[in-house]
Design goal:
- This protein is mainly beta.
- Helix content is 7%, strand content 45%.
- It is built from one helix and eleven strands; from the N terminus they run βββββββαββββ.
- The chain has one helix at 63-70, and strands spanning 3-5, 8-10, 15-16, 21-26, 29-35, 47-48, 55-62, 82-89, 94-96, 99-102, 105-108.
- A four-stranded mixed sheet has the order 3-2-10-11, with no helix packed on it. It has a four-stranded antiparallel sheet with strand order 5-4-7-8. A three-stranded mixed sheet has the order 6-1-9, with no helix packed on it.
- The longest helix is centred in the middle third of the chain and has 8 residues, at 63-70.
Length: 112
Amino acid sequence: MGRLSTHVLDTAAGKPAAGVRVVLRRDGAVLVDLRTNADGRTDKPLLEGGAFAKGAYELTFHVGDYFRASGAATSDPPFLDVIPLNFTVAEDSHYHVPLLVSPYGYSTYRGS
């Protein structure tokens, strides 16, 4: 059965990014709105079971608040505040979508 999960790593500090707000939307509707835990992960999958469906999704990572709270040196306003990530689910499988982020750059990929 399909499952969607994420985690956030602060590459500038070399540690998991705890407390990052993560919002998952499909067709503009909010499906999940939560924060990462001390390991930079969510406490449960974003989607699984009957809630998991093929289609287009948007994950938004509210990293500006995280960097302000962590005391990281950022510009004012921050260069990266809310990072939108649009992706599609094409098969009934495990989708892991991590975010590697610093105050001035980020990357993502489909993990395992």
